[in-house]
Amino acid sequence: MHGHWSSRLAFILAVAGSAIGLGNIWKFPYIAGVNGGGAFVLVYLACVFVVGLPIMMAEVLIGRRGRRNPIATMLLLGEEESGSTRWALIGVLGVFAGFLILSYYSVIAGWAIAYILEGASGAFANIDAAGVGEIFSSLSGDWLKTSFWHSLFMLMTLVVVSKGVERGLERAVRILMPALVALLLLLLGYSMIAGDFAAGLRFMFEPKFSELTQAGALSALGHAFFTLSVGMGAVMAYGAYLPSETSIMKTSIAVVCADTAIAILAGLVIFPIVFANGLDPATGPGLIFQSLPLAFGQLPGGIVIAVLFFLLLTFAAWTSAISLMEPAVAWLIEARDISRRRAAWMIGGTIWVLGFFSVWSFNILADFKIFGRTVFDNLDFLTSNIMLPLGGLAIVVFAGWVMCRNSSSDELDPEAGAGYRAWRFSARYIAPVAVVLIFLNAIGLI
C-alpha cells in the first residue's frame, strides 16, 4: 500500500525539512559573505520565487500524478504524455544523485555531531585560530573518528526511513522541524544581544551592487535552485504521498517561504557574531567549522551557544538526509516487492559503504585526485553542478512542454487561473533558461 501524508502541514514540514539543510545554515551564509551580502541576498530572493518555485511545483505535480517512486513515475507519465519510456532516465538521474549526495553529505553532518561534543566539553573556550584549526584537522584527518560519526549519522537516517511515511518520515519532521525553528530563534535572540546585530542587518539587507559580480549573481541563481532540493527525486517522491485535495501551488509557496526564512534567519544568527568578533564574513566554507567556534569561544555563554548551534546544524542535516534516501528506498520497495525495513537497510548500507571514500578524502586518500579534485570534491561537483541542473531542467521541460495542459492544470489547481498561467509561462520559458545558465556557468562555459 502506498503511504500518504496525514495532512497538508505534514507535507509542508517534510518538504521544508528536505529543503532546509546544510545548504541553508552552512552554505548560504558563507556564499552570501563571499558575494558581498545585501545585493546577493536580493538576487537570491528573486531567483527563489521566479525560478526555484516553478521547478518545485513541477516536481510535486509530477510526483502526485504518478503516485510511484521517481523512476516508475517518469516511466508511466513519459509513456502516457509522449509515448516514450525514455523519460524514466530523469527518475534514474534524480535517485542516483540523491544516493551520491548522501554519501558525502553524511560526512559533513558527522562533523556537526562531533562538534556538539567538542562544544559541550569546553574545547572552544578562549581558543585561538590555531586551536580551532587543530580541532578540525584532528577530526577530519583521523579516518577512524570521521568514520564513526559518518556511521552514526547514517544509522540515525536509516532508522527513520525504515519506519515508513507516517511512523517514520512524518513523525521525525513533526519533532525535528519545530525543534530546528526553536533553536534558530533562540540563537537569533542571543545574536541580537551578544553580537553586532546592526552590522549584521546592514550586511544582509543593504544592497551594494558594485560588489556583486556576474559570477556572484549566477551563484545566487544556482543556490536558489539547489537549496529547494529539486532535481534529485526527493520532492517527487514526497509529492507521490500528497493527498489529491491538497493545493500544490499553496503548499509549494509555503515550503519556499519557510526555506527562505530559515536561510535569512541563519544569516542573521551568524553575521552579527562574525562582526562582533572582527572576523571576515567572506571566510568561505570554513565559516561554520573554523570561524564560528573561534567566536563562540570568546562570547559569554559561548559554550552553550556552540552546543545549540551544532545541534541545529545536525537537525537540519538529518531532515535533508531522510529525503535523500527516500527515493532510492521507494524504488527498491516497488521494483523488488520487498519490505520497507529491508529496502532501507540495503540502500542505507550501500550509501554508508560509499561514504567511506569521502571520509578518506580528508586523510588516507587526500593525495589521490582525479581532475585535480579529491573523491569528496568530485562527488560534490558531479552532483551539484551537473546531475541536479540536468535533472531540474528535464523535470521543468517535461512538466511545461511535454505534459498536456489538462494534466498539469488538474494537478496544480484547475481554478487557479492567473496563478496557473504564471507557473506555466515560467516553467516553459524562464526556469529552463535559468537552469541552462547555471549549468553553463558550472562547467566553465560562461
**For this structure, what is the CATH class?**
Mainly Alpha
Beta-strand segment tally: 0
Rg: 21 Å
Number of domains: 1
Encode the helix/strand succession as letters.
Answer: HHHHHHHHHHHHHHHHHH
Question: What is the CATH-assigned architecture?
Answer: Orthogonal Bundle
The percent range for strand residues is under 5%
**What structural class do you assign from the helix and strand content?**
mainly alpha
Shape: globular
Largest sheet at a glance? none
**Which parts are unreliable, with pLDDT below 50 for 5 consecutive residues or more?**
none
Portion of residues within helices: over 70%
Oligomer: single chain
Q: At the third CATH level, what is the topology name?
A: Hydantoin permease
Distance from first to last alpha carbon: 48 Å
Average pLDDT, all residues:
89
- Quickly count the helices: 18
